[in-house]
Design brief:
alpha/beta, globular, 15 helices, six-stranded mixed sheet, about 425 residues
Amino acid sequence: MTFEFIETAYDVDDKGHFGEFGGAYVPEVLRQPLLDLEAEYRQAQADPAFVERVRDLFQNFVGRPTPFHHCRNLSADVGGAQIYIKNEGLTHTGAHKINHCIGQAVLAERMGKRKIVAETGAGQHGLATATISALFGFECVVYMGEVDYDRQRPNVFYMEQLGTKVVPVRDGTRRLKDAAIAAMKHWTTHITDTYFLLGSVIGPHPYPTIIKDFQTVVGLEAQSQFRARTGKDKPDYCIACVGGGSNALGLFNPFLDDADVKLVGVEAGGRGVAIRGDHASKISGKATVGVVEGYKSLFLQNDFGQISNTHSISAGVDYSGIGPQHAYLHQKGRVDYVAIEDDEALAALQALARTEGIIPALESAHAVAQAMKLAKTLDKDKTIIVNLSGRGDKDLFITAKKLTPTKWDAYLKSQIDGE
């Protein structure tokens, strides 16, 4: 099992910025807790016992390393390049989110915090947070936008069974951005005993770096597994979906300093990027620079500078902002960002399911769709790694209604009538 802290030319600077992005734009009451968190984190990184504790939990609780699968059937179907999948859906709790939850749980324990507050969109970060809270004996509260609370009800149910209090947020757009603001407000009034366990590479410094560091295990494993499987030194492309961007940075980070490896982030194109409110693509949707949730980055904003409504079939990528390091990587031209629409993601989900026996999360299906588009333009000796950030169980109530509406409605009616 591979896990270590690495440095790249695209890391945060001494003041907590990625170029013009990042930073910590927070109320005065949060400045010292964030400085304390950064100091404790830097000490923890240099502590062999801390690193070994994280490694042990990655291997024996999470189930790392996760599989690295050559999609021979899908590659043949599409034609062109060979597609490989790093399958984070086979971690405990079914998504990559467990990686940064494990790291932050060990950090919270080291800081003497016994209470956890978190935000979640698709629920996978919330589920992973609830899971580690049960494991570590933490008291846990998770905030969730009301829209996501309704469409990701299975994860709400499981979080509650794990002993976590799930709070639906009815402010603003009732999505991930509003959940993050509510969680930060909670933390502001419970700082002494509560750890704010963030769920993506967003938020004030040092959170984007902390989350990225623990997710880097994904890329390190993929790098090693690719070499062992193919005999080649490196892939030609790495592709991952991007909401806030944690799974993408996890895969990309070990490859950032190697310009020969092309990196592609896939955002939610929703119903199309031409109309504001129909998508959640920051790059293709021409997001502008703003400061939200304590950090500076690119955000979808209306003419008055307010955060725009967004749309995606997938709650996990339906986010109005993008992690500050992603904004920096876009500005520097190191990562290409594209948009995949809802229907393309659904088609990719079906293609992967039928050719490889893998049902991806809707977030990950966006990345699979882009890999399929790209592969057919490349020679057969070219290689693409796709990070499958999670499995599709949680999306059942969305995908079944979209793909088999008559059967699904009949099933739901039978369940109601049977009561």
